[in-house]
Specification:
Low-confidence stretches: none
Radius of gyration: 12 Å
Strand order of the largest sheet: 1-2
Helix content: 40-55%
Order of helices and strands: HEEH
Number of helices: 2
Largest sheet: 2 strands, antiparallel
Mean pLDDT: 93
Amino acid sequence: MSFNEIIKLALNTLKESIDEDPTKENVRLVYIKAEDKKYHECSKDEVEQFLNLIMEESKT
């Protein structure tokens, strides 16, 4: 799986398991990529970009 596919899977799973819509205000996203093994906590803007990916996908 690509990085974006993994993020989309995680966010879609979260979306299905909570009672409200995920937003940049109520979602925190952290990841460690295998290539550099660095911890990265996404900003609210990054979270919003990833959430937009799953929202666009659900429209199709």
